[in-house]
Design goal:
Length: about 230
């Protein structure tokens, strides 16, 4: 599903974020991308989202060469993935239901399909009873659940999460990871960039460690292998 082939990224200030990275993630995998601050893991996520393009090499997702997509083609890539961020990025003036509906509106889904789909996805993340609330009325964990629902409502084959538990207490963070695990078990490929050592160790998933712009470790059922 994901392939990085000889990928390097050098920023305009001369910082080498990635150096000749080769990486494969198969359909249906759950993968953590970890590493110290500045190691390059955030750059990997930005390349997947086409927020950055590689200086050298190619990034493939679902047979799309991401770095060669035109502006017209980019929306088709974005529809194939759901994205969850540390800061939730919810629309403050919209309700929970409306925040999730917005993701369906963007891809042109009908109101009828929204009425059928959104209640079930909110139920899956445990928020069916809060559909009419605004983000300001929710806890941080609940806001992240809304973000998850929004990312999943169009049934993307790939979910990318960038520090999804960074603003959450340990118990809530564990609950979010359990949700991600459930989503993966339903067939969605999940890629999570995180610093959450305890959660990574507990989950026993594949762990790719980025250090100094290179893949330092790639463990099928791994754990953190560096100290902060």
């Amino acid at each position: 599903m994901i392939s990085l082939q000889g990928v390097s990224k050098v920023y305009p200030n001369g910082t080498v974020a990635l150096d000749q990275v080769d990486l494969e993630i198969q359909k249906g995998e759950f993968v953590f991308v970890v590493g110290p601050s500045g190691a390059g893991k955030s750059t990997v996520i930005k390349l997947l989202l086409h927020e950055e393009v590689p200086t050298e090499g190619d990034v493939y997702i679902n047979d799309y060469c991401v770095n060669q997509l035109s502006r017209k083609e980019l929306p088709y890539l974005r529809r194939s993935m759901g994205v969850v961020f540390q800061d939730f990025r919810l629309l403050p003036n919209k309700t929970v239901y409306e925040n999730v509906a917005f993701a369906m509106e963007v891809v042109g889904e009908s109101k009828r399909k929204m009425r059928r789909t959104i209640p079930s996805i909110l139920s899956m993340v445990g928020l069916a009873h809060k559909a009419r609330m605004k983000p300001s009325e929710l806890s941080g964990g609940e806001q992240q659940r809304v973000a998850l629902a929004r990312a999943l409502v169009n049934n993307p084959p790939l979910l990318v999460a960038d520090e999804p538990t960074g603003n959450l207490d340990p118990q809530t963070a564990s609950e979010i990871m359990d949700l991600l695990d459930q989503i993966n078990r339903r067939g969605t490929t999940v890629v999570v960039a995180t610093h959450a050592k305890e959660l990574v160790d507990a989950m026993k998933k594949r762990v790719i460690t980025i250090e100094d712009g290179k893949v330092a470790h790639d463990e099928e059922r791994g754990a953190y292998v560096y100290e902060k």
